[in-house]
Amino acid sequence: MTPDLQSASSSGGKPSRLFEDVREGETLPEVVMPVTISLCVRDAAATHDFFPGHHDRDYAKAQNARDSYLNTMFFHGFVDRVVTDWAGPDAWIARRRLDMVVPVCIGDTMRTEARVVRRREEHGHGLVEVEVRVLTERGLGAKATLTCRLARAGASRSGSI
């Protein structure tokens, strides 16, 4: 399986993070992914977003983009992957705010910077807010803040989230 097709929910057999073990300021592992024509075309097909800028290089360039570019739904899944790969299979994305900054195009390599910016308890649930920045060689491509519900120590697995 190619790196850009790995499951967003795969935890590699790692246990889920517990709310009690997470600290504000904690950094998440970097995720790196090259943007290829194949990735853009598969993204457009998988999301049924057939706007030409996502798969037709000439059309994208006619729009003054450098090349074909990834769509918004790709970034929703990508930032979710960054958080769920770190948090594990028992985590639940409760909220996501995503800002697209500039098009991320074929030939770019995305890498992430992510950190826990807040942790809190709400209605008995352990929630963490994670800030994710998606960068390319040209700078910031997208930024997101996600609220993730984590399992609690001592809670049964079925009732922990």
Explain this structure.
20% of the residues lie in helices and 31% in strands. It contains three helices and five strands; from the N terminus they run βαααββββ. It has helices at 37-47, 57-62, 72-87, and strands at 32-34, 92-100, 109-122, 125-136, 139-150. A five-stranded antiparallel β-sheet has the order 1-3-4-5-2, covered by helices on one side. Residues 1-11 have low confidence and may be disordered.
Q: Descriptors for this entry?
A:
20% helix, elongated, alpha+beta, Thiol Ester Dehydrase, Chain A
**Distance between the terminal alpha carbons, to the nearest Å?**
31 Å
Give the amount of beta strand, in percent. Answer: 25-35%
Structural class: alpha+beta
Main sheet makeup: 5 strands, antiparallel
Broad CATH class: Alpha Beta
Shape: elongated
CATH architecture: Roll
CATH superfamily, by name, is Hotdog Thioesterase
Could you please say which CATH topology applies here? Thiol Ester Dehydrase, Chain A
Could you name the ranges where pLDDT drops below 50 across 5 or more consecutive residues? 1-11
Task: Kindly state the percentage of residues in helix.
Answer: 10-25%
- Total number of strands: 5
**CA gyration radius, whole angstroms:** 17 Å
Gist of the model:
With 161 residues, this protein is α+β, with helices and mostly antiparallel strands. It has three helices and five strands.
SSE layout:
Elements (H helix, E strand, L loop, with lengths): L31 E3 L2 H11 L9 H6 L9 H16 L4 E9 L8 E14 L2 E12 L2 E12 L11
Antiparallel strand pairs: 1-3, 2-5, 3-4, 4-5
